[in-house]
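Example A, followed by Example B.
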Amino acid sequence: MSDLRAARVYDWDDETATLLTQCSLYGLRAGRINVIVDDPQTGAYTPVGEEHLVQTALEAIRILAFWDQDKSKTVPSMHCRFIPNRRKLHMEIIRKNVHDRFGGQASPGDVAPYVLVPGNKQRVEQFAAQWEKSRLIADHYEFILYSGEYAGFPISACSTGIGGTSVAIAIEQLAELGAQTFLTRRCH
């Protein structure tokens, strides 16, 4: 650990690495929001950061959805045809490897194009509580999946559990069900 700090590496996690790598391979979008929830002076946890995290993640999804909506009006049609063809190729790869759709509880159309993917179930419920509309889609092992509407845009949130393997399972299932943009979070 001291070698990493000497190299000025202060944060790492295999969950985000899995998310970013897998989405890149499948031609999907992914990102991570970092929020400081520890007091920098004392190192003590401050719950105020948790609410800020929820609001920041929801605002990021709203902005992405707005940009995508606006882009669809201005991007030349030739360019628009190219992107779905690439996605179709990646989706065929995903379908060959997909798991069981959250214990058979989720179906195509249940998942929005924009998905928040925190690790634990409680954070998913925090996100869903802030939406105008929300409904529970699935609750299977470490995965809980909600879909709904936020600021007029469709949105989903799904817990990923712990570790890269669990994240990979969730991303494959969500992508097969229609997700296109993933956003995770990290608290410090």
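Example B, a separate protein, is given below in the same form.
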Amino acid sequence: MVVKIAAIVLAAGGGSRMGANKPLIEIGGQPMVVTAAEAALAAGLGPVLVVTGFGAERVEAALPPGVAAVRNPGWALGLASSLATGIAALPLEADGAVILLADMPRIGEAELRRLIAAFRPGAIVVPVQGGRQGNPKLFARAFFPEILALRGDHGAKAVVAAHLDQVVEIEMDDAIFADVDTPEDVAASRMKAPFPALTPGCHPLDNAAMAQMPGLVSDAMAAFDTGGRGNVRRGLHGAARRADDAFDAARATIARFLGAAPGEVVISAGCTAALNLAAGALGADLAAGDEVVLSQLDHHANLLPWLALAKEKGLVVKWLPVTAAGRLDLAALPGLIGPRTRVVAMTMASNVTGAVTDLPTVAAAAHRFGAVVVADAAQWAPHGPFDAAATGADLLAFSGHKCFGPTGIGVLWGRRALLERLPPVALGGGMVAEIEGNDFTVLAPPARFEAGTPPLTQAIGLAAALEWMTGLDWPALHARQRALTARLRDGLARLDGARAVGPSDIGIVSFTLAGCHPHDVAQVLADRGIAVRAGHHCAQPLAAALDLAEGSVRASLAPYNDGADIDALLAGVGEAIRMLR
């Protein structure tokens, strides 16, 4: 027997708190009501009825083909009125109906097909997560009379409560709770929409290691790679000229993001490669007894190149310590920098404690003695465009994959006068001006530092990512991230044995659980679809200074994270405590 299941999409409410007809708010490039209706059609539900009320004409005009509108003139009387309108309009042959809310844009075809697969006559199919019921729900025809009898703001959950013995529960992800009810919900849903990887049930909280990539970035790279590729520099055919133009445009976009000139932007294979380039170029002029100041807060990428140089050349390494709070102890700085200081290498923001460095203060102390300041901006750059020169750094590096761009690309920004006096580190095609006998001359920066074929496709992708970042409302995003960070830290404080590490200035929250190894905690969370990172985070000097022998668990936020991610993480940490102790 063929089972016929209809869909009722409730889109009658006003949503005036957001100053708009809520079903028409666009998430992912189209009105939410259209997303709901198209998901129902794709899942094979029929007929698909959209109940309209407030702003009915506009809602009905937006509906896709194959969807019928049923107007409820009494929509202001409450939810029950719209439910009854939809049920009354169903054909007699409908064996059941899925009741969808138009403001749940993360419910898609897959979720609806799971409901349909669990249907049986005389049952109510309800999605749950952790014992908590969500939406949408699928009602067999036997329950239609009770839905018709509802009054006021009573929703269909009242019918569910009256027939618990006939409820079929199916476990689903948190999409079943993701309704859009406030301006904050709208902002969060819109931030997720450009990212194909952000499917329901995933909680990407490992952004300090790798941010997700908006579809427009992969589209930009694919357009270049499939549109007739050419290599840069000196090619005369069409594809080569297009490659030159694309590479130049990418460099210009990166420069704008940094408030810099294109000639100050060196494109590298990553942030680590950029920092090694800086160390290699500066190291050529260093001698035994010269001093380099490093910090206990830094990532290995900004430590190991200098430690290796120190071994090779007899340099003196001095360490700026961290406080117990996980910040740099700037009070110790005057005693570390002096006439023999040649380089001060510092992070702009810690990838473990989330502490932001007062780099202008560090730079002022270094510049008094003519030292060069090398800044690791890997964790700073993902938080929006900034003025590289205003940081006080002389050389500054960041990576593409943390800035919502592709892997395999990074940037080294440098003050023009400094770049012009630094020697190349890698040699080959594209960086040499002329070879005469046993001698050669090199090109001006930035080409001097870009030997061989550059990461051209990746540069195009990074430029697309930075253009996308530049168009965001960063003050609003920073405020939302601060609120989410506080919510996470407050939640951790209420869990037995949980301890946050550091101040979390930029949405990085590392923590430990007494009696639980960080790797075990991360595995419990991974099993629940929550991505975090565990260990020393390539910052062993910091782990030693803070007595974190086993490391920590790190959650790191991006603009697309929302309250559901925080709630899922806290629930997962609670589960880890129960399982691991």
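On Example B: The CA atoms of residues 290 and 315 lie 5 Å apart.
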